[in-house]
Amino acid sequence: MAEAVIRGATSDAIEGVTVRVRKALEADHDDLLWADGFILGTPENFGYMSGAMKYFLDRVFYPCEGKLEGCPWALFVRAGNDGSGAITSVRRILSGLGVREVQEPLLVVGEFNDGRLDDCEALGLTLAAGLEAGVF
Questions:
Q1: Cα 123 → chain centroid
Q2: Maximum CA pair distance of the chain?
Q3: 62 burial class (0-12, 13-18, 19+ CB within 10 angstroms)?
Q4: Which CATH number is 58's domain given?
Q5: Rg of the chain (C-alpha set)
Q6: How many structural domains comprise the chain?
Q7: What is the mean pLDDT of each run of 10 residues along the chain (136 residues)?
Q8: DSSP states of 59-73
Q9: What pLDDT is recorded for position 112?
Q10: pLDDT at residue 92, rounded to an integer
Q11: Which residue of 31, 82, 104, 109 has the fewest C-beta atoms within 10 A of its own C-beta?
């Protein structure tokens, strides 16, 4: 899923948008402060976001507090249950940073269908195109 999101964000149709890709355990607050927008992805683990995503958000929250106001973001989740716990928990933390969710989360539940990769590409493309056009 992440690779498809990246493909969309780095599409040849987009100019003037630089994409930086980081895994949750490698990313830090400087990555968020650098970004004009961001997409997070996580599996649902035990009805919650992954431990790596939680650790990332714990590490960046206070260094980024008050510095990301209005920054656009989006989320994709691969869920074994219904995904609502993962989505709610990410939203709750990010609301404290004042960032702006610009797309409904892309949620993939149950059996994985390769057609969902098109949805992932569209997620990346939409955020990149919005940044390119100055919509976000």
A1: 9
A2: 39
A3: exposed
A4: 3.40.50.360
A5: 14
A6: 1
A7: 97 95 98 98 96 98 98 97 96 98 96 90 98 96
A8: HHHHHHTTT-TT-EE
A9: 83
A10: 98
A11: 104
The helix (run of H) or strand (run of E) holding residue 106 is strand 106-109
> Which domain, by its residues, includes 7?
2-133
Give the model's pLDDT for residue 38: 98
- pTM value is 0.96
Length of the chain: 136
- Minimal CA–CA distance to 31: which of 89, 79, 71, 77? 71
- Which of 81, 21, 86 shows the shortest CA–CA distance to 51? 86
Residue 104's pLDDT is 97
Per the rule left: phi > 0, alpha: psi between -120 and 50, beta: everything else, 112 is beta
Q: What is the pLDDT of residue 11?
A: 96
Encoded tokens for 4: 């498809």
Q: SS3 breakdown of the chain: % helix, strand, coil, rounded to 5?
A: 45, 15, 40
| Tokens coding 95 | 């609301």
**Pairing state of beta strands 72-79 and 100-101?**
parallel
pLDDT given for residue 114 in this prediction: 86
